[in-house]
Design a protein that fits this description.
alpha/beta, Purple Acid Phosphatase, chain A, domain 2, five-stranded mixed sheet, four-stranded mixed sheet, 8 helices, 12 strands, about 15% strand, globular
């Protein structure tokens, strides 16, 4: 059995299929880890979500911010964003069958055998693996409950910026969600700023990529997506992380790593064009 992890697909269905063919993925025996953001901005969110759902017995997937945005749009009647490409999902006859499965996916997946953690954006540096799993479970439990629609009403926002165990209710859930699904830059006290989205070096003074801070989970290798502008040429091994969102949506690459081998094997598919609607405005 081979185990592959693939970065953010974001509705780039054709490239997703091509990469599965390139790695000779066997849906009967192999396992596939996905960093989340399987939908939105790309042209074929519905086809992508249906394929992932069809392979669900072989899938280990974590939720990304675009996946959560789809859930909020569907269950909280949130207006779609200007660049969203979610209409085909929302209008599908099997929409709520797919979304009921989607909202039951975790924020964190851990493989003890390989000491690998899968998340969308990252793990807050102050959280060891046990703490991270406990906090992820708080939000996961809410998403899987009858109260999940209430969560979407309070999910959006950039505050609080700092972690404390004394946080309660929606601010607590929002901070946990932001760290797992939106985090990029933190300051020396591990306080977050959510606005900068560019490559390291573009952030405000005093902030660094989250994985450059000393972290309580340093003995765990973290596989994450979310940050397509990270330079592929940097040495991330020194931080014990594998960033695998390589910007297929923007005409970059769709990246897979085979994680049941030592060392891991990197496989990349060149994406021929940008699919993001923001790139094609009149």
């Amino acid at each position: 059995m081979a185990v592959y992890a693939i970065g953010d697909i974001q509705g780039c269905y054709a490239e997703f299929q091509q990469l599965l063919e390139k790695v000779k993925f066997n849906a009967d025996t192999d396992q596939l880890w996905l960093t989340g953001d399987v939908v939105n901005r790309g042209p074929e969110s519905l086809a992508t979500l249906r394929l992932v759902y069809a392979m669900r017995d072989n899938i280990r997937m974590v939720l990304g911010n675009h996946d959560l945005h789809l859930l909020a749009t569907a269950y909280d009647n949130k207006p779609p964003g200007r660049h969203d490409t979610l209409d085909n999902v929302l209008q599908a006859t099997d929409c709520y069958q797919l979304l009921d499965w989607l909202r039951k996916q975790p924020l964190l997946h851990y493989d003890a055998e390989h000491k690998l953690a899968l998340v969308h954006a990252g793990i807050h540096p102050h959280w060891d693996l046990v703490t991270a799993a406990r906090l992820a479970n708080e939000v996961e439990t809410l998403l899987r409950s009858d109260q999940h629609a209430q969560f979407y009403k309070h999910m959006y926002g950039d505050k609080p910026t700092a972690w404390s165990e004394t946080l309660t209710s929606w601010p607590r859930y929002r901070f946990i969600t932001n760290m797992f699904t939106r985090m990029r830059f933190l300051d020396a006290k591990a306080r977050a700023t959510m606005n900068p989205k560019g490559a390291p070096g573009s952030q405000p003074a005093g902030y660094v990529p989250w994985f450059e801070l000393p972290r309580a989970s340093a003995d765990v290798i973290i596989i994450f997506g979310h940050w397509s502008s990270l330079p592929a040429s940097a040495n991330y091994d020194q931080y014990n992380v594998y960033p695998i969102d390589s910007g297929c949506l923007w005409g970059g690459q769709l990246t897979a790593i085979r994680i049941d081998t030592t060392p891991v094997q990197w496989l990349r598919l060149n994406c021929q064009q940008s699919h993001d609607p923001a790139k094609h405005q009149a």
